[in-house]
Sequence to fold (430 residues):
Amino acid sequence: MAKKYNTQMEAARKGIVTDELKIVSEKERKSESEILELVAQGKVIIPANINHKNINPHGIGKGLRTKINVNLGISKDCCNFEAEMRKVIKAVEMNAEAIMDLSCYGDTRAFRRKLVAECSAIIGTVPVYDAEGFLNKRIEEIKSQEFLKVIEAHAQDGVDFMTIHAGINKDSIKRFEKNPRLTNIVSRGGALIFRWIKATGNENPFYEYFDDILEIMRTYDVAMSLGDALRPGSINDATDASQIEELITLGELTKRAWRRDVQVMIEGPGHMPLNQIAANVLLEKKLCHEAPFYVLGPIVTDVAPGYDHITSAIGGAAAAAAGADFLCYVTPAEHLRLPTLDDMKEGIVAAKIAAHAADIAKGITNAEKWDYEMSLARKRLDWNKMFELALEPEKPRQYRKSSLPEEEDTCTMCGQMCAVRNMNRALESN
Fold:
């Protein structure tokens, strides 16, 4: 029997409970009717391309657990597909819900297809990164309609969401040029489109042909991640005119997408002082009609290269506690190099900590139960149970093994002065 819907949003609006929605309902411990209403309203998305056959679906949005995304992919300087696939395997093992392939060199399509075929996580891409290689042209030589061919190729290959930089246009560039920034445009996609507009004199094709792009998204049920081409690249530039003007445009584009039953999330700022984060989340939710918010960090200080997994985890926790729904991890190698496998692991752990801390603050179902169980294991000095419950068990096991105490029910920090042990014994003797 023919399917009676094209997208998850269309199905929800028709009252159809898809297989993917059933899975999300079970994972989130929310009723199908509740998830159905949120998807129909655009407040929750379930990215699931019809060609991604082995996907393990997740919901992203209001009232759901905060999800994380892992960026990877090859570049001209680091072109090792096997190494990136090892990262993919490890990221899935570490329960990353989404993986974005940012590859911009070599046979990107072969890698993308392999990724979709073998990976159950939600897969995202940024088509403008791939345009030069896919079309074998310099960015300035690419015609408007050719960008759409790249988007369609990614959709056909099965990616579940795409970053589409449709919010930057000729008007917003004028605004940007009238309001100079310290760090200009730091979005790779935004800078490419700026360069293309200045070279050709034409309107941004992702903005001009937005309705054509929506048709592609609708055909394959690809969720649109509206990219923040004018996001701040330093705390100095945060919450400026260019950023806010683009956000207003993204809100307008969101409504256009919803009219075609296309799922949407909004990408948010990369660098931002801690005291501005909650206000920015509120702005996004208001201007973009409560569409899910996907934040790239935010990095809360610019002075910690080598430790930006920490600066971003601080910002990510604050953003998600204020209502952001999806965190893009940042590794210690941010701004410095392509991340290694170990860098990726550090980034995932930091982002997962931020997401869980925010879920506790938001009152997400059963978030606090995990911490209760860990506290109970600590009270009982049950080391194996602590490791079993740990967000990442490998490092705590190594620490414990590397410095064993004389007595099993202590550690080498406090020994016989362990407060937990002494309180347990004192209370047991009463």
Remarks:
- Strands lie at 44-45, 60-61, 67-72, 98-101, 122-125, 161-164, 223-226, 264-268, 293-295, 326-328.
- Residues 190 and 229 are 4 Å apart (CA to CA).
- Residues 367-429 form one domain.
- The chain is about 50% helix and 10% strand.
